[in-house]
Design a protein that fits this description.
The complex is a heterodimer of chains A (330) and B (425). Chain A has 330 residues and is mostly helical. Chain A is built from 12 helices and 4 strands. Chain A is globular and about 75 Å long. The chains are: A mainly alpha (330), B alpha/beta (425). Chains A and B meet through helix 1 and helix 10 of A and strand 10, helix 7, helix 8 and helix 9 of B.
Chain lengths: 330, 425
Amino acid sequence: MDIFLQQIINGLTLGSVYAIVALGYTMVYGIVQLINFAHGEVVMVGAMVALWVITALAGSGTTLPPLVIVLIGTLCAIPACMAVGYAMERIAYRPLRNAPRLAPLITAIGISIILQHLAMLIWSRNPLAFPQIISNPVFHLGGATISGVQIAIISLSLLMMAALTLLVYRTKLGVAMRATSENPEIAGLMGIDVNRVISITFVIGAALAAVAGVMVGTYYGIAHYTMGALLGMKAFSAAVLGGIGNLAGAMLGGMLLGVVEALGTGYIGNLTDLCHVSWISSDLAERCAVDGHVILFGSNYQDVFAFVVLILVLVFRPSGLLGERVSDRA
Amino acid sequence: MSRKSFTVSWIHATVAGAVISLALGGCGKQDEAQTSADSGGPEQVTVKIGHAAPLTGSIAHLGKDNENGVRLAVDEANARGLVIGGKKVVFEMLSEDDEGKPDMGPIIAQKFADAKVAGVVGHLNSGVTIPASAVYHQYGIPMISGSATNPQLTEQGFPEIFRTVGRDDQQGPAVANFLMSEDKPRVVAVIDDATSYGEGLANEVEKTFKEAGVKVLPREKGTDKQTDWNAVLTKLRGEKPDAIFFGGMDAAAGPLLKQGRELGIKAVFAFGDGACSDKMTELAGAAAEGMICSQAGIPAQAASQSFLEAYRAKFNTDPIIYAPFTYDAANVLITAMQKADSVDPAKYLPLIKQLTYEGASGKIQFDDKGDRKDAEMTIFMMKDGKIAPVAIIKAGKTIKFEDFMKGATAEASTVQTTEPATEQK
């Protein structure tokens, strides 16, 4: 049972990161029906900028407490990512807003490749160690352990989701965003500066991505110029799982995906151990007698779960778990 | 090291008719060496020994280290004034930069063949040595690498190809033997990154443990880009292993180690050479302390005293990693030529196989494949953020590093007195 609880904690931590990144995908999709494939790279830029600042500060012999250094790193990463998000929208997506759907999708992939390679030029192709300066106390919880960083990731994610929900449903800007999402033309006629609203959406998504980047860096202690690609793909799956365009859906999808991944990785080996059914062939029984286990799918299938879930959702519920609008505009 | 792959090949290219005199340029085959008429002494012949390694780029310092090993051997041989086949032999090192690029391997090899080298020491990287070795095989040029550890190099069955360093697949048994002698684990978990390097290494470790009757948990796998190992480690935590081995590179090993300790796993963590550097401390922080890892060969500081002194005197620095092995490789070529009394590759090649040579890195004998018999493996442990050698594994026996150092010094001194023929001075 403690193993199960531990896997849930692992999954929730991972899921929180997915959820934050998925929000970026879903917000942009909700407003311009564009899948911003470069969003994962923004997470990477956030991690890299924070790593840069934290390494510089930590190495400068400053007397600032480590937590403050990480905070400064995050506060530097957020504007950097916002700038990247704004530039991305302005350069690659706005000129193509009325172009066929495929065009901005292609530029999104292009931007993703460009960002990755720029990062490679700036930060080298080697994996970089994320400075581990903050102490990470470990708490025990009914046989399972949860670290300070994990608690911080989960609670910070929940906090940001709450803040974003308030922003979208309780502010004037939120009304403008929802109106633009409903119908950009009419929203424009009502006096909403549609371009500005779209830019702000990109910038908010990028800011969330920056925080996610710092979370991933601090949690795993490593940053690499390709780190955003797979994370982005999984977060996108999470967004689709929850129903793309739907904020609550992205959060639910992210958390769910994290837990599915952790449990899947933890238990698939045991579940697909052919020795449970060794009676079906004598060859198998022999191998089981020697090795004890004949495992069909090992834990290296970890990354597959996200995509299996994605396919299943698309087959049985194309609009996602909480998605109302069928993706007719995609 | 396999993927980081330092393959040092020394191209000993000694050409029987080494310096082609332009006057005889029209004569097709030139078997006769150019004689140095000006010296007036006995007939003199120049024998070229090739050396190839990356001399530019990120591991240029290692390439230079390898080159220094060959240079030292060549200079010492020249100082001894060897007479082979009735002629005074002057060795000349032909050093080329292969940039550590696989496609440059065959190009450099062809260059050496055209220059009619008598033998080659190198290359540094396995990835470069393997394609180059086909060319050496084609021209029948003996090649000895002092750093290419990928098993595939000698599995091709080329009789001209040797190495003075161990193979990656000897690392696995070494780590397993060390763990069994030190920590006596009862239950062991093995994880790999599903690459040919990581999985191959993990298979060897698992095999060694199983043969010794240690319980090995079902294999866990990840990928070489994986940073989240929590799920795998959580599952393992429930099985309470005493030791965990991971076959993979540092980028995955660092997070794995960190997460393992955060989950409260008390087991000993062990790795292969892909995660055997001080970088592990950066990646895993305090969690790296006490980890075990292995590298092929012996640390440079464990090479023979006479070599270390000669190297320091000549280059004013310490050898980095593979210089003792390239030095030995060059000396093996030279010694084989002496024993065969010929610098013709066809004549001295069989002698390399039969040779027993006491070198800077210990006794060198080759098996049928061209691998070094009983090649040493070194086990390192992370102490105060730096990896420090703790043991040498030789022929399945674990020798404490301090004892090995004492033994090596003693051995080196006996060699000096008993076997002057192969002495390096």
